Amino acid sequence: xxxxxxxxxxxxxxxxxxxxxxxxxxxxxxxxxxxxxxxxxxxxxxxxxxxxxxxxxxxxxxxxxxxxxxxxxxxxxxxxxxxxxxxxxxxxxxxxxxxxxxx
Length: 103
Prior knowledge:
Number of strands: 0
Structural class: mainly alpha
Strand content: under 5%
Largest sheet: none
Distance between the termini: 147 Å
Number of helices: 2
């Protein structure tokens, strides 16, 4: 019986030692601190990358819209120039016809 009490006492001491050791606040070692810094750095990199992606996406969208506007304006200018050129050719043709009639 005495041996049983001794064994139980030893087991209780070991159990409480384990429990209290697990509950105490552990100091971070240099590797753990470095690991946390690396994690924080990668989080920041991820955030900055996401921000840059969004800004780039928006800039590309705006650039595409501006290109569309320029292409549309250029097309209109070409159509206007072609129309004016056609009109001038007709006028020139009419003048040539008139000058041939006078001869």
